[in-house]
Design goal:
Blueprint lengths: L2 H9 L4 H11 E9 L4 E10 L5 E8 L7 H16 L4 E7 L3 H9 L3 E7 L2 E7 L4
Parallel strand pairs: 3-4
Antiparallel strand pairs: 1-2, 2-3, 4-6, 5-6
């Protein structure tokens, strides 16, 4: 797992392995990102239901290999954003304020940073604009 992702998990009180396991366990949709042709894991992502109807919790955990495929990853990110949004009105989660690369990518995907519920972490939302 990327150091930034591990630090986010730890900062929110969850061991990185537990965060990964729970993310997959609770997801309504979950996917892996493979670095080809070596077939090595570059990351995983998905979306989970929340207690609020129409709102999903989107997540992504990357490895250092994500940097090796960054152009392909970025090129396809918006397609996968639409896949994760699906029938949700919006998706949300937290990101560490220190994770500038992830924040820049989220903003590029259309995320709005709405508040700081926990010191050092921003809650973001991505609104489903599909009709």
């Amino acid at each position: 797992m990327r150091v930034e992702d591990m630090l986010e998990c730890i900062g929110l009180g969850t061991h990185p392995r537990q965060a990964c396991e729970q993310s997959f366990e609770h997801s309504t949709k979950a996917f892996t990102i493979m670095q080809t042709p070596v077939n090595k894991l570059a990351g995983s992502f998905g979306v989970c239901d929340t207690a609020v109807d129409g709102v999903g919790c989107v997540w992504m955990l990357g490895t250092h290999r994500i940097y090796n495929i960054r152009n392909t990853f970025i090129r396809h990110s918006r397609e996968w954003k639409d896949e994760l949004l699906g029938d949700y009105r919006m998706v949300t989660n937290l990101v560490a304020k220190s994770n500038l690369l992830s924040m820049r990518w989220l903003k590029w995907l259309g995320a709005e940073f709405i508040r700081e519920p926990t010191e050092g972490y921003l809650e973001f939302i991505i609104i489903n604009t599909k009709d």
